[in-house]
Design goal:
Layout (H helix, E strand, L loop, with lengths): L6 E5 L4 H12 L4 E6 L2 H11 L3 E5 L5 H15 L4 E4 L13 H29 L2 E6 L12 H21 L4 E6 L7 H8 L3 H8 L6 H14 L3 E2 L4 H11 L1 H21 L4
Parallel strand pairs: 1-2, 1-4, 2-3, 4-5, 5-6, 6-7
Helix pairs in contact: 1-2, 1-8, 3-4, 4-5, 6-7, 9-10
Keywords: Oxidoreductase
Family: Belongs to the short-chain dehydrogenases/reductases (SDR) family.
InterPro entries: NAD(P)-bd_dom_sf, Sc_DH/Rdtase_CS, SDR_fam
Length: about 270
């Protein structure tokens, strides 16, 4: 897909990867990019900074009625939605100590919101015989988010759902990509590091932390090539192969890394 003259919706569009996607899509010549976010004021501010081709709206991506209403409104105003980016996501930084509410919130935002988006936007796309779904799933959906059980489980589910959509609807003109970055310089990672979450420390120690704009660049390339897996960190493909070829060795390596980080944390800052 080329972005020129396209009508695009991005959830989680008020910051991080979502805002970067909005900026890049407009730069690529999109006709309009609707940035939808639970924080409506922030979405409006980001859209205003991007320019007249961007529009900010308030949206709870876990509310099926709100998602359906947004899709209807955009289709009525602009005639279609060419690309829907289900980008909103949450992390917990917790393991078995995660509360039921943490699991439910993770499930709703990281998985069910993707279901609601597809359910709302696919009828129009199928009627036209074309359309594109981009789901932000994270490298955790191919590997493991050490230290965050809800994030790991739900991101794996998100990749699985995206793959199901790709298999089911590709022959009817619907293309699907799963965006799976690893470390990205977003508030989610910064907050995790500030709170000492093991998973955030593993990410920071295991590879480059990209800017959201770099992720957006990789996304545009992946959309143009219509790849199912868009990997802004190319090394993730190698990690996934190593994990598949030797699950026990892969897990042993992560345990060693976890142990080292825990020892470093207990030792404290060195003088």
């Amino acid at each position: 897909m080329r972005l020129t003259d396209r009508v695009v919706v991005v959830t989680g569009g008020a910051g991080g990867i979502g805002a970067a996607l909005g900026r890049r899509f407009v730069a690529e010549g999109a006709a309009v990019v609707v940035l939808a976010d639970l924080d409506a004021d922030a979405a409006h501010a980001v859209a205003a900074a991007i320019g007249p081709a961007a529009r900010g709206v308030g949206l709870d991506a876990t509310d099926a009625a709100q998602v359906a209403a947004l899709v209807t409104e955009v289709e009525t105003r602009y005639g279609r939605i060419d690309l829907f980016c289900a980008n909103a996501g949450v992390a917990t930084g917790r393991g078995l100590d995660a509360e039921d509410a943490d699991w439910e919130r993770s499930w709703q935002v990281n998985v069910v919101a993707h279901v609601y988006a597809a359910r709302a936007v696919l009828p129009g796309m199928l009627a036209r015989g074309e359309g594109y779904l981009l789901h932000t799933c994270s490298a955790a959906g191919l590997l493991t988010a050490v230290g965050d059980a809800p994030y790991t489980a739900t991101k794996h589910a998100a990749v699985g759902f995206a793959e199901w959509l790709a298999i089911t609807y590709r022959d009817r003109g619907i293309r699907v990509s799963a965006l799976c970055p690893q470390g990205v310089d977003t508030p989610m990672l910064a907050d995790g590091l500030a709170e000492g979450h093991l998973g955030a420390r593993v990410i920071a120690a295991s590879g480059p932390v990209l800017t959201p704009d770099a992720v957006a660049d990789a996304t545009v390339t992946g959309l143009a090539e219509e790849r199912f897996l868009i990997l802004p960190h190319p090394e993730v493909a190698d990690y996934a192969r190593r994990r598949a070829d030797d699950p026990d060795g892969w897990q042993a390596g992560l345990r060693r890394l976890m142990g080292r980080l825990r020892r470093d944390a207990q030792a404290g800052p060195q003088r």
